[in-house]
Amino acid sequence: MPTSFSARPRVRSLVTVLALIAAAFLAPGFGVLSGAGDAHAATKISHATATSMFRQAGITWSSSGNCSDRNNPSCTSFEQLNLATAQAAQTLKSASRCALNITGGTETGHAGGTYSHWNGYKLDFAKAACLNSYIHNTFTAIGPRGDGAPQWKSGSGNIYADEGNHWDVVYYNCGGC
User: Is the overall model pTM greater than 0.85, yes or no?
Assistant: First the structure.
């Protein structure tokens, strides 16, 4: 009988440890659609799903080639976009109340890397007075990127880089959706 009493604290400790591990997996900043540590685990969506989400939010998109072929750099494609990236664009639209026009998605032709357009983490937005003002007045200037582009960081950690004629935005998360 003493053995069963001494085993109970170990069982309780094991259950506690497992609960803490499960909570860590579900905590903000760790889950599938969260931050920078989960580049490989993001939920991907189709071009059709993304355009439906954008249309519903009142976000427009355009391409120099008037197309959506992911393998054509003249197109604007959302194929394999991260769900969190699409949600973050919706959050930006709702929070800023600005007209948003996406000019770059997941199509080839952008710089590579883990948090790239191709991997679904980035969108390009056309410059506009309302959007420029919102970014400058709401987010924190964090200094230039390696290529000299000035950057602003949102409260949720997403980065907005001013590339001159457009905003290049990396979305690590949905921006508070």
Answer: no
